[in-house]
């Protein structure tokens, strides 16, 4: 039995609340159980210097955890003068995941930055950020479309979502919360599109190596979970 009493293929309650930021072009408060992430999408009518006059836009992301998003207060990274390696790795993952479903030439020479701020952490913050980030990005693109800047159907090629899976006490399970994540023998994050394409897989054996058969089980669980998340994204933006 899982600590949360969930079935092996059962996700936590997932929700997407849109338009939670008054100023951002797109915003979403995403909840995966007790993991809550605020995602905002901001439009800038410029691109990085290395993309100037290249005829295409850019989508990037930033990620951070608030000091009391965890049990003990964390020091703000700004106070140390630099971002940690984990933060950089996660925000690059979010950016790659979102760009995988955006037609950058159709976007035009603008940049959209998706900021993902963890309000409360209970495992799976990066997967929640990717899934909620897509909703914020979608709404930013709708904002642009309403001003005749783009056509969303040409720019946004598909949904993208992410979920964690792992082997906990010898059993493959879907959508790990913190008690499972901290004790899992294998921990993996899967990023996929709505059509089932694989964007990225991160998998680590914390103790014993996992087998190809176990990986197949984790992939099957991930596909089920991401299908559920995409369905909820579709409902949220309908």
UniProtKB/TrEMBL annotation:
<keyword id="KW-0548">Nucleotidyltransferase</keyword>
<dbReference type="InterPro" id="IPR002381">
    <property type="entry name" value="RNase_PH_bac-type"/>
</dbReference>
<keyword id="KW-0808">Transferase</keyword>
<comment type="similarity">
    <text>Belongs to the RNase PH family.</text>
</comment>
<dbReference type="Pfam" id="PF01138">
    <property type="entry name" value="RNase_PH"/>
</dbReference>
<feature type="domain" description="Exoribonuclease phosphorolytic">
    <location>
        <begin position="10"/>
        <end position="140"/>
    </location>
</feature>
<dbReference type="Pfam" id="PF03725">
    <property type="entry name" value="RNase_PH_C"/>
</dbReference>
<feature type="binding site">
    <location>
        <position position="86"/>
    </location>
    <ligand>
        <name>phosphate</name>
    </ligand>
</feature>
<dbReference type="InterPro" id="IPR001247">
    <property type="entry name" value="ExoRNase_PH_dom1"/>
</dbReference>
<keyword id="KW-0698">rRNA processing</keyword>
<feature type="domain" description="Exoribonuclease phosphorolytic">
    <location>
        <begin position="160"/>
        <end position="225"/>
    </location>
</feature>
<dbReference type="InterPro" id="IPR027408">
    <property type="entry name" value="PNPase/RNase_PH_dom_sf"/>
</dbReference>
<dbReference type="InterPro" id="IPR018336">
    <property type="entry name" value="RNase_PH_CS"/>
</dbReference>
<dbReference type="InterPro" id="IPR020568">
    <property type="entry name" value="Ribosomal_Su5_D2-typ_SF"/>
</dbReference>
<dbReference type="InterPro" id="IPR050080">
    <property type="entry name" value="RNase_PH"/>
</dbReference>
<dbReference type="InterPro" id="IPR015847">
    <property type="entry name" value="ExoRNase_PH_dom2"/>
</dbReference>
<dbReference type="InterPro" id="IPR036345">
    <property type="entry name" value="ExoRNase_PH_dom2_sf"/>
</dbReference>
<keyword id="KW-0819">tRNA processing</keyword>
<comment type="function">
    <text>Phosphorolytic 3'-5' exoribonuclease that plays an important role in tRNA 3'-end maturation. Removes nucleotide residues following the 3'-CCA terminus of tRNAs; can also add nucleotides to the ends of RNA molecules by using nucleoside diphosphates as substrates, but this may not be physiologically important. Probably plays a role in initiation of 16S rRNA degradation (leading to ribosome degradation) during starvation.</text>
</comment>
<keyword id="KW-0694">RNA-binding</keyword>
<comment type="subunit">
    <text>Homohexameric ring arranged as a trimer of dimers.</text>
</comment>
<protein>
    <recommendedName>
        <fullName>Ribonuclease PH</fullName>
        <ecNumber>2.7.7.56</ecNumber>
    </recommendedName>
</protein>
<keyword id="KW-0820">tRNA-binding</keyword>
<feature type="binding site">
    <location>
        <begin position="124"/>
        <end position="126"/>
    </location>
    <ligand>
        <name>phosphate</name>
    </ligand>
</feature>
């Amino acid at each position: 039995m899982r600590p949360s009493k969930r079935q092996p293929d059962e996700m936590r309650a997932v929700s997407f609340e849109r338009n939670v930021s008054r100023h951002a072009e797109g915003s979403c408060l995403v909840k995966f159980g007790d993991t809550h992430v605020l995602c905002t999408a901001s439009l800038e009518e410029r691109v990085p210097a290395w993309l100037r006059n290249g005829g295409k836009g850019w989508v990037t992301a930033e990620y951070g955890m608030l000091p009391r998003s965890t049990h003990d207060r964390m020091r703000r990274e700004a106070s140390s003068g630099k971002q940690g390696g984990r933060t950089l790795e996660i925000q690059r993952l979010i950016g790659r995941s979102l760009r995988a479903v955006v037609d950058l030439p159709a976007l035009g020479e603008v940049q959209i930055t998706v900021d993902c701020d963890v309000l409360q952490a209970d495992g799976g913050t990066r997967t929640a950020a990717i899934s909620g980030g897509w909703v914020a990005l979608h709404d930013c693109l709708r904002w642009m479309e309403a001003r005749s800047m783009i056509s969303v159907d040409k720019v946004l090629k598909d949904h993208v979502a992410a979920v964690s899976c792992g082997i906990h006490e010898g059993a493959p399970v879907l959508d790990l919360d913190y008690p499972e994540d901290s004790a899992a023998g294998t921990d993996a994050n899967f990023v996929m599109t709505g059509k089932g394409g694989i964007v990225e897989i991160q998998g680590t054996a914390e103790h014993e190596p996992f087998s190809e058969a176990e990986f197949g089980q984790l992939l099957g669980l991930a596909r089920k979970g991401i299908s559920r998340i995409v369905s909820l994204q579709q409902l949220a933006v309908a």
